[in-house]
Amino acid sequence: MMLQWISLIIVSVIIVIALIDLIPMGLDWINRIHIGRYDDKQKWNESITTIGVKWLSRTPKIKVTDQTRLVAIDMLQGNYTKHAIQHWQEAALLLGLGEYVKSNDNPAEIRQKIGEYVHSKMDGQGSWARKPEYVDAAILAYAIMKLDFLEVERYRNALDETWHLIQDHIGNEGSVAYRKFMGKYRYVDTIGFICPFLVAYGIRYGKEECVELAVRQIQHYEEHGMLEGHHIPSHAYQIDSKLPLGLYGWGRGLGWYAIGLIDAWNELPQDHASRPLLEKSIIRFAKSAIVFQQKQGNWNWTVTREETIPDSSTTATLGWFMLNASQIDEISDICRQSANQAIRYLMKATRRNGAVDFSQGDTKDIGVYSMLFNVLPFTQGFCIRLMNVKVDSKVV
Question: Which parts of the chain span the membrane according to its record (predicted)?
């Protein structure tokens, strides 16, 4: 009898482990039935926004590993998800929904959800309820600063804490490290994480040193982390040797550079001395990135190879960049056309329920990239942002 009970327990455990692996794969297969049926931009916008609101209060966990077998082991070891990923995921949703609120009439429910989310991140003194350790938090602070309908001054302590956190990551050569324990490297991700916040914070509170740091971060990367002759970034570079690290043409790396550059430029007043400098960078990068856009409107996870898998996260961020870059006369037409092509692709990559699919998963290390492509809150947020921003008083 005892042997039978042991056998039953073992079989039950095996079944549970198998189901943990099989259920997500089965759900993905079901959810991808009739994918890409959206042909009306307004309906698509409403659908992706509905999902974005849902995810803001309960952001889907993004896997750390690429394991699709014996996932239960990763869960038990604590390697399935990690909290640090969520800052940039939630920030993108907040940026997108904030843009939606500005562009649409009476979105009271969305305003309420946003307010509840921001309140949950703060303590009674307007500081972070859970003090961030990594500069990833700066993009979330930037997203909060963009919420014009909230009293942002209530959260001044959190904004100041974010600036102090960034200062604490400045290296001897004057640029910001991705992580303190990786201080000898500079990542392209960091440009997207910190530069928009630094410019917005610096302009709002009269701290020109913040703006100078953002511009310096971009300039250093352009000097040491760009592929000569093509102006696309490597994943990282080593600050002493100036050697590039990782892949030239990693799609989301282009996206991080693009949003850091374009949002920093957008935050600068028209008469600021650094604006023409960043504008030159925008023109140069736009012309380079458009070369790698595929016929379907997407960019691939490795933009330089047509054979690699299309990446919705790259396409959404570069689409956002292109639409905003279309404000510059020299590249206006090609950038607006590029943004519209990106939107058409993203519509075709959207599930029936409004979740944008086929985004590359979390990167493991410099040069070690995920081969899982699924939904990503970061992509969802930038799709919403892209569809609701007004450029030259026009909505795409």
Answer: 6-27
Torsion of CA 103, 104, 107, 111, to 10 degrees: 0
Return the amino acid letter for 7: S
| pLDDT, mean of residues 363-386 | 95
pTM of the model: 0.90
Helix axes 332-348, 312-325, angle to 10 degrees: 150
Residues 6+ positions from 156 with CB-CB distance below 8 Å: 126
Exposure of 172 in the CB half-sphere (CA atoms within 13 A): 4
Measuring CA to CA, which residue among 257, 263, 260, 315 is closest to residue 290?
315
Amino acid, single-letter form, for residue 13: V
* 378 to 51, 73, 331: CA distances (angstroms): 12, 27, 27
Strand 359-360, strand 244-245: pairing: unpaired
* Token pair 């960091």: residue: 190
Mean pLDDT (the chain) is 90
Q: How far apart are CA 314 and CA 227, in angstroms?
A: 18
| CATH class for the region spanning 32-395 | mainly alpha
Where in the chain are the domains? 32-395
